[in-house]
Automatic annotation (TrEMBL):
Protein name (record): FADH2 O2-dependent halogenase I
List of residues binding L-tryptophan: 344
Positions of FAD binding: 14-17, 335
One Pfam family linked to the record: Trp_halogenase
InterPro entries in the cross-refs: FAD/NAD-bd_sf, Flavin-dep_Halogenase_NPB, Flavin_halogenase, Trp_halogen
Top-rank EC class of the record's enzyme: oxidoreductase
GO MF annotations, alphabetized: monooxygenase activity; nucleotide binding
Catalytic site: 80
Length: 502
């Protein structure tokens, strides 16, 4: 890009992806060198269902200097300590994927091997006893990390639930305050340089022509620039992840605000419950191959936890990713770059990591192929690993009560996931690959929760005497219980910290 004049960055789309990108770029790029424009269409609208997050969102907000209490009050947000899975392994069974760790590693060996020895000896010793976030969630408790505490309270790991529409509104005001030129209009034509095929400008329904040096495609599933203009193909993962539709419908709040997301498996998919301060976000995710829209609407209506607040809304997608997220001078961020169904709340995280990757490879002139290739390689790697983690939930199940679950249990899976499962089953070992998003704790939670049982624990566990091992386990479980008892009720905490101002 020419540094003599201002470089023009054009963001197409004003959903969460567009506004998260605009917020980060307007905060970090110097205003005297960059002009940022965001174009959104009120006619086309946004997906607006990204309401559950994972802990990395805290880093994003901190990078922007966002005040947490003000943010949560504005977005009607609540705290999230993990996801509780009901009926996934088999009907009547439940487990949690908490954000915090289990116990503490001892002598360099991950904690769960010490616990596994008990399990392999047939003792009923739930892993949940050793995780503070898990215990707090089950008891509807929450507080911020207590830096001065010498217990697990010092490092409580949490994320947020929030209203997606309010989130975009918040970031929009944030970005406009920092100089982003917001245009409400529909893009009717995209122009490219004849020789390079770079995107040169977009024509708007209001007659304006917006030129740019760098275009960020945040236009949602259709990928207005990356797919429709630059013709980048799509890697389709339907054979591994058959759910391609959702019905979303909010309902009234209950007296308790749970500090976790609930995911309940049903015959042909699963249902989410996301408790906010003012309502519960609900949705039913299903595969259109196995269930009709009308039955899905019916299924959700019967299982809403409280009175519906609006009509059901349908969403459709294909799980998969764009073959290249960055091509020429266009970077796809958000749904235009790919989507993995919302089971582990990874949508906003993928936007965040794309923004961070873009910042670290930000072009200083014309986009360089080496930067583009690096960006695309890391994007692919991130998505493939997350895809494997999501597939695990469907594959490792004992459910066979419907054609949907029988398909999931028998479907082929990627070798990368097969290797992970085999390693865990043979020796309880888990390795985090290439800095992948989900840590050993996450993989352990889901592999254990989905009923996978290793044949053996780490041999060095036996370096601890049996008496010492038992003492350590009961000391850790006791410390978790004690810490949980000191934590306040989640709803009371919200009311004090970030009550929604009316
Ligand atoms: C069922 C479901 C549940 C989800 N749950 C979660 C969750 O719990 N947590 C999570 O992190 N993520 C979740 N996600 C993902 C999350 O919703 C998305 O990642 C997020 O909303 C980003 O969407 P987006 O901004 O890419 O696209 P969109 O919201 O679709 O925005 C597209 C934008 O492009 C604009 N646009 C399109 N075409 C034009 C045009 N021609 N001219 C001008 N403007 C145009 C539109 O006006 C709009 O502003 C979920 C997704 C789905 C489908």
């Amino acid at each position: 890009m020419d540094t003599e004049k201002k470089s023009k960055v054009v963001i197409v789309g004003g959903g969460s992806a567009g506004w998260m990108t605009a917020a980060a770029l307007s905060h970090l790029l110097p205003r005297d060198r960059f002009a940022i424009t965001l174009i959104e269409s009120k006619t086309i609208g946004t997906v607006s269902v990204g309401e559950a997050t994972i802990p990395s969102i805290l880093e994003f907000n901190q990078m922007l200097g966002i005040d947490e209490a003000e943010f949560l009050s504005f977005t009607h947000g609540s705290f999230k300590l993990g996801i509780e899975f009901h009926d996934w392994y088999k009907k009547g069974h439940q487990y949690m994927h908490p954000f915090g760790p289990y116990g503490v590693n001892m002598n360099g060996i991950p904690f769960h091997h010490y616990w596994l020895k008990d399990k392999l000896q047939g003792k009923e010793d739930p892993l949940s006893d050793y995780c503070l976030e898990y215990q707090a969630a089950l008891n509807n408790k929450f507080c911020h990390p207590q830096a001065q505490s010498r217990s697990a309270m010092a490092n409580i790991k949490y994320a947020y639930h929030f209203d997606a529409v309010k989130y975009a509104e918040y970031l929009s005001a944030f970005s406009v305050k920092r100089g982003v030129n917001k245009i409400i209009a529909q893009i009717t034509k995209v122009h490219q340089h004849a020789q390079t095929q770079d995107i040169s400008s977009v024509a708007l329904s209001n007659g304006e022509l917006i030129e740019g040096d760098l275009f960020i495609d945040c236009s949602g599933f259709k990928g207005l620039l990356i797919a429709q203009t630059l013709k980048v193909g799509f890697e389709d993962w339907r054979q591994y992840l058959p759910c391609d539709s959702a019905i979303a419908q909010p309902s009234e709040s209950l007296s308790t605000i749970k500090p976790y997301t609930i995911s309940t498996a049903h015959e042909c998919g699963w249902q989410w419950q996301i408790p906010l301060q003012h309502r519960i976000g609900n949705g039913f995710v299903f595969s259109s191959q196995f269930l009709s829209k009308d039955l899905a609407i019916d299924c959700l209506a019967k299982r809403l936890p409280s009175k519906a607040l609006s009509e059901p809304r349908q969403l459709n997608w294909i799980n998969g990713k764009r073959q290249q997220a960055w091509k020429n001078n266009c970077i796809a961020i958000g749904l235009s770059a790919g989507f993995i169904e919302p089971l582990e709340s990874t949508g906003l995280q993928l936007i965040q990591s794309a923004i961070m990757r873009l910042l670290s490879l930000f072009p200083s002139g014309r986009c360089q192929q080496v930067d583009i290739d690096t960006y695309n390689r890391y994007t692919d790697d991130e998505l493939w690993r997350i895809r494997d983690f999501i597939i695990l939930h469907y594959k490792a199940t004992q459910r066979n009560d419907s054609a949907f679950w029988r398909y999931c249990a028998s479907m082929p899976i990627p070798d990368s996931l097969q290797n992970k499962i085999e390693l865990y089953q043979s020796s309880g070992r888990i390795f985090r690959e290439n800095n992948e998003l989900f840590s050993e704790i996450s993989w352990l939670s889901v592999m254990n929760g989905q009923g996978l049982v290793p044949k053996a624990y780490h041999p060095l566990v036996n370096n601890l005497s049996e008496q010492q091992r038992q003492q350590n386990l009961s000391h850790i479980a006791g410390a978790m219980r004690e810490a949980e008892q000191q934590m306040p009720d989640h709803k009371a905490y919200l009311q004090k910290y970030c009550r929604v101002s009316t």
